[in-house]
Amino acid sequence: MPKLEIKRNAELSRKEVSERLIAIGQAIARGPDVELTANDDSLEIVVADRLRWELEIEVDGDKTEIEIEISWHDDPAADADATSESRPAAPAKAARRGRARKTTTK
Description:
The chain is an alpha+beta fold and 106 residues long. The protein has one domain. It has helices at 14-30, 76-86, and strands at 33-38, 41-46, 52-60, 63-71, 101-104.
């Protein structure tokens, strides 16, 4: 299946960033069907029941970077493998590509 990747960069206020993070969290909490929007673009994805969470905080001089990565597999067997591996091991960077659909907000 072809790779789909959408990146958005913007300079936002702390409040705007917190609102976006909360919106993503609430969408994931509501159920497996999640619609993510950015500007006029919308992406509908199906989120698995078990997710891999990666948090990275990097401080380099006067620059601080926080990266949050959430990933999962569409294959339940792969989810079981990822869950058993995720306990003490370093997290792998698996990206979800299937069943994503880009739409334009009207």
